[in-house]
Amino acid sequence: MDTYERLTAEQMDEQRIQNVAYQYLCRLEEAKRWMEACLGEELPAPTELEEALRNGVILAKLGHRFAPSTVPQKKIYDPEQLRYQAVGLQFRHTDNINHWRNAMTALGLPAIFHPETTDVYDKKNMPRAVYCIHALSLYLYRLGLAPQIHDLYGKVKFTEEEINNMKLELDKYGIQMPAFNKIGGILANELSVDEAAVHAAVVAINEAVDQGDVGVTAVALRNPAALLTDLQEALMSVYQEILQRARRRKAERAAVAEDKDMYEEYLTQREIQDHISAVNVRAAVEQVDEALDVANELALLSALQLPCLALRGLRTDNGPWYLDQLTADRQQKAQNQGSVDPLEHEELQEGVTAANQEAQMVAALQSVNAALRGNDPRRTVSCLMTSDLQLPEVFPFAATFYHRELQLLQRQTAQGELQEEELFVAVEMLSAVVLINQGLEAGHLQQFSSSLVSSSAGYFETLAGVKQQVGRDLLTWNQLQEGIAAVNGSAQDEQQQLLAVSLINKAVMSGDPQRLISALLLPSCGVDEVSPANACKYLTLLSQARQIKAQVTVSRDPGAELWLADIQEAVRMANQQSQRALKCESQIHLPAQVTTPVQFLSMWVRNDQRLDRHRLCLMIFVIIATHLRRFVSDGGRL
């Protein structure tokens, strides 16, 4: 039994429609990938691309990419699509579509391919917009302005749901699918007379290159219709070799393609011009290299002026500077790479720019030295402010100061000329001095402290006093330095004193009298009238003071430290107590047999003496102290 079942007309029509939907999805994917390559950004999937094109932002960006003068970036409405995401399509989005259409007109794409604004914005005929993108890609590719769009039919897969959805969308609008495969032929028919002539000339060049005859290739290249520039007769054989090599590479890449366009194998006009320009540049850099080899300034200038190099800022009067700079660059390149390759075009441009800057700097430096030999401070400041010297900021109101100080420095040099490094350091220093003086005069501590990079070192008060002494004149660098040195010395003394106070606090915490005395006797401590004999009293009073301070602090910090004033007060009180005790001891004469407090009290009771409580306590303290001294002197024996 024959298992082959013939499809009905309806089934065949359904299959055809599904195939059309698949083909269109492929065209969308092709357009998506091509635009991504041109714009350098990721675009929505082909099933979402139609909707993404409706606001015209992607299309306007495409117009800006290839016709920036027609579609400046600032003309694109809602470029980040924030408005579109918030409230959807706005009528102003149609401006983007019109910008794209204007760009295609400026580029010369035949109007037969252009869609209407409503085809995109209202989605009346979106396949026509995609068709136009395909035509634009082929047109720009033939001009050498854009990458090639690739045929993805049969190479990408879509789900049955995606194909069915696209089929329903096409049915909904009843759109006739454009003939994408006929774009190349339509483009050829729509070319203007001039464009057709260029096309014919380019084809002739490709065919001549294939023949391998330099003479035939030269004739084809010279054809004015080819619009090629900067052809050099001496390089025709090189053009032939380079173009033939490029032509073969392109043909090999296109060999696997089916239904390929002519320009997938042939070199475009832009590609031919690019190869010619590359050959010219290579020949020019070799000519520069030969001039550097023989140190010929005139030959070097002649080579640098070749149109193909198009070096910016070239000045014929800077020939010696170019020779020195490029020779040094060439030697440096040889050392770094271990080769003798010529300087590349970019390296030549960098060398020319550097030589120009050096020449301008030397000329500006000569102007400064000349001004310093004169008597016009304003001219000196004007010369200092030129951008060629790249000096630190100069303040015109201090013109006399700059002129006087730099003049003195110039006279001290052996050659009577300030060099670049000397001038830079001097101006940097003098400008700092000017700012400091300005801060002192105005009394602005903030400006002053920012000039010295320290707002807490006490410089301001010291130098303000010096400024008052000298009157209206600006303080010199030496005067500033002396004042700063004095403040620095004072600050160092304070730092050492703080260290000594810290040692005293640590000794108090350890409860070690000897360690405390060692700290109190440090010269940097600054505590007056310290007596080693009172070490225990010092320790007692300082410990008490530390405890009191810990209690009165807001945080009740047990680690609260004593300050220098606290320490000095405790030492003073301990010394006073010792002095009072010694005075009382000298006034009280006890009998020899009274050696203990008990004996004293017994004697007091027997004699019924009337002593006030304070005097009694003091006497008892003296007796105890006397007893302790005897105990210690006897070696601790009772």
How is this structure best described in words?
This protein is mainly α. The chain folds into five domains: 9-189, Actin-binding Protein, T-fimbrin, domain 1 (Orthogonal Bundle), CATH 1.10.418; 191-278, no CATH class; 342-475, no CATH class; 494-586, no CATH class; 588-633. 66% of the residues lie in helices and 0% in strands. The protein has helices at residues 9-39, 46-53, 57-66, 82-87, 93-107, 117-121, 126-142, 160-173, 183-190, 193-211, 214-222, 236-254, 269-293, 297-304, 319-337, 345-373, 377-384, 399-412, 420-442, 445-452, 459-470, 477-510, 513-520, 535-552, 564-587, 597-607, 613-633. Helix 1 (9-39) packs across helix 7, helix 17 crosses helix 18 (399-412) and helix 22 (477-510) runs antiparallel to helix 23. This is IQ motif containing GTPase activating protein 3. GO terms for molecular function: actin filament binding; calmodulin binding; GTPase activator activity. It comes from Pundamilia nyererei.
Q: What are the defining features of this structure?
A:
mainly alpha; Actin-binding Protein, T-fimbrin, domain 1; 27 helices; elongated
Provide a concise account of the structure shown.
InterPro entries: CH_dom, CH_dom_sf. This protein has 638 residues and is mainly alpha-helical.
